[in-house]
Amino acid sequence: MATKTKPTTYADQIAEADAVAADKAAQAREAFEEFKEKSERLADEAHEAGAKLKWMEGRFKAGDETVSVEEYALAKARHERAELLAALGEVSNHTGENASERRIKAAKRALPAMESKLARVVAEALRAPLRGVTVHATFGEVPAPEESDLPVAVVSQSKPTKNFAKDGDSDGKRVFANALSRYLIHGEVKVTLFKLPIHRELAGKQIADALRKHGIELASGAGLDHSHPMTVARNGYEVQELRVMVGKALDPDADPERVAEAEEQMAESANRAGAQTFRHIDAHSPEWQMGTGFEEHGARDYARTL
Questions:
Q1: Nearest Cα to 74, choosing from 61, 59, 58, 56?
Q2: pLDDT score of 282
Q3: Phi, psi (deg, nearest 5) at residue 187
Q4: Contact assessment for residue 156 and residue 188, using Cβ atoms and an 8 Å cutoff
Q5: pLDDT reading at 2 higher than 60
Q6: Sign of the dihedral through C-alpha 261, 265, 270, 272
Q7: Which residue has the higher pLDDT, 280 or 70?
Q8: Are 45 and 26 in contact (CB under 8 A)?
Q9: 208: buried, middle or exposed (CB in 10 Å: 19+, 13-18, 0-12)?
Q10: How far is CA 90 from CA 84, 104, 143, 156, 272, in A?
């Protein structure tokens, strides 16, 4: 007697999508590391060849005839070959990087996600406001659900989660290293809602309010509060999508005790900084304090000095 195959649930499909994405991401990262190693090796060879050529030309200028024409010609040819292979290009006045370094950075930015930290954070925040909707998180391709799965929402991320301590903040600026920055993340996710016409629609403000309630900050200029997704008919149901730019959130895998310790250190640092500021103010005369707009001492203290 043939055994029945257990039906695959939508959660199983999400898990399978993650497994496929993890395999592809591992291959992409391996290819990137090979590309980076080769680019850096060729750049080093180009710099070494250039240094040797300059050394020879320096000897010539000093009247040293020990370097032969053949040696000089070979060094010059090797330098030109190394530069062509490395394709260093011009150094950017803005970043100070050559073309090879810029290509490595661009290749790193193109790497796909290997985890769904940011998607998990957003999904957790949306489960309460999206009552009656099953919410999943994934870093793989979002599978198409069956009608029996509806309504269902998927928070997906295609790029690796960025960390404040390693990657800077959501504006692309490096942040001052502090106790809490290593536990803060940011990036972009997409919220996809699969629904029937009878189900309620996705609303940007609803998502934005839910994220703020969970202590998640939106990136500057995200405009989620005023976003209204387009509805696309597909396979007999409706699909709505919204992109969410997260400016700051707590890493879901962070140790709560370590986070609490970091927050305590930050609070102590803030208290010390505040106390130092007041000591600096108190060291000045009431005239100076009132002139700078600091009114703690007020007109009464100033009158005592008259």
A1: 56
A2: 58
A3: 150, -165
A4: no
A5: no
A6: positive
A7: 70
A8: no
A9: buried
A10: 13, 15, 44, 38, 47
